[in-house]
Write a structure and sequence with these properties.
The structure is a single chain. This protein is an alpha+beta fold and 190 residues long. It has a domain at 1-80. The protein has helices at residues 8-18, 61-68, 138-146, 158-166; strands spanning 27-28, 40-44, 49-55, 76-78, 87-95, 101-109, 112-118, 124-125, 153-154, 171-172. The chain has a four-stranded antiparallel sheet, covered by helices on one side. The chain has a four-stranded antiparallel sheet with strand order 5-6-7-8, with no helix packed on it. Strand 5 and strand 6 (101-109) form a beta hairpin. The longest helix has 11 residues, at 8-18.
Amino acid sequence: MPKPTLTALDRFRDALTAHNCNPRGTAVRCPAHDDRNASLSFGPATQFAGAVMHCHANCSVDDILAALGLTRNDLFDEPRQSKQGEAVIAEYQYRDETGEVLHGKWRYWPKSFIQWRPTPNGGKEFKLDGVRRVLFQLPELLAAKARGENHVYLVEGEEDVLALERAGVVATTWTEGAWQPGQKPKWRTE
């Protein structure tokens, strides 16, 4: 009799167990930092067949996977087929000065994006009408300013910001993406 195939969620849970993170329910100690508060949430994906996670201490998905010896491919059972055959591979949250999520962006494979804002019931609405726009990693920028840092890299996208943060520098971007000739300016006065 063939062995049942592990789902991405099973693989992720097994990797957490192997790293003594002791998963119970959908919250666990994050393996990417010295976590004492079970700050990593995980569960089944809704946009594709697989698993998703979010560290409330802002560890990146790549850092969490590396700590567990997994890759992004381990998060997928089989990509759910939509009209374009897309699957969500990253989520970026844009937070205000207090850390509250104002809006966010999902990155799909193949490369495309959709923006959203949180709803009061914990869901997402896929329009930003009336939402205050802020720079990516605003709380981190303000903390750097408070420390007296005077160099900030302004880069094209969220992945670049996160890579520069891992390298120890301060960086940000805006949610609208790179400017293209013929488009209105994307840098906002505020």
